[in-house]
Amino acid sequence: MLKISNLNVSIQSVDILRDVSIQVDTASMAGLVGRNGAGKTTLIKSVMGILKPKSGTIEFDGVDLIQTPVNLRNRLGIGYMPEDRRLIPDLTVEENILVPAWANEQIDAHKRLGYVYDLIPELRAFAPRRGQQLSGGQQKLVALGRALMIGSKLLLLDEPFEGVAPALAQRLAEVISRLQTEGMAVIFSESDLQYSEHLVQKVYSIDRGAVTERPLKPRL
Predict the structure, then answer these.
(1) Of 85-89, 113-117, 184-188, where does mean pLDDT reach its minimum?
(2) Entry's SMART domains (predicted)?
């Protein structure tokens, strides 16, 4: 599904990612684990086209992403949930969820919105509320719903559980766990795997821009 090979990314002449290679298969989940500043967000932004790699390859579902314009990547079925949620405060929950569908002129937006509401019923309950009226945890749910509007094949989740109360973090994990049964691939970018360790099939550690795969802990 997603294959990254020997990726190098620099920001203002500073090397951030160094020869990064990872692979995430269809219907599988991978954790990208590292401290703040290790390069996790840079890697995700490179996949989304927000940052341009210096060298290396990013292939998604047989498509060369580096050669694919940024505005076309979402149409490939890639959804992105940023760490800071980035909701538009004055829009309602439903409007925030629909933003990527509007941007991509998604013809099945209403059907997909129904799918998101069925997956996360809480969103339907506070759909009329404005983004600024939500708690941090509720905003995370909305950001996940927004990513799912176009993320039908791959989800990139940047710190999805950070700053969320334990009960709501467990709820987020429940929702995400259902996606694997639908054939979706997911990458978690996290400082630890407290809530997602039981979900992932691969774990990659990132430190100072270098990535290594590490073995999973035995599951009881």
Answers:
(1) 85-89
(2) AAA (SM00382)
Domains of the chain: 2-214 (3.40.50.300)
Q: Please enumerate in sequence order all residues whose Cβ is within 8 A of that of 176, keeping only pairs 6 or more positions apart, or say none.
A: 29, 144, 155, 157, 160, 186, 196, 199
Strands (E), the chain: 2-11, 14-24, 29-33, 55-60, 63-64, 78-81, 154-158, 185-190, 202-207, 210-214
Residue appearing with tokens 């709501």: 168
Q: What does the pLDDT average to over 169-189?
A: 90
- pTM, two decimals, is 0.92
Rounded to an integer, the average pLDDT of 150-156 is 93
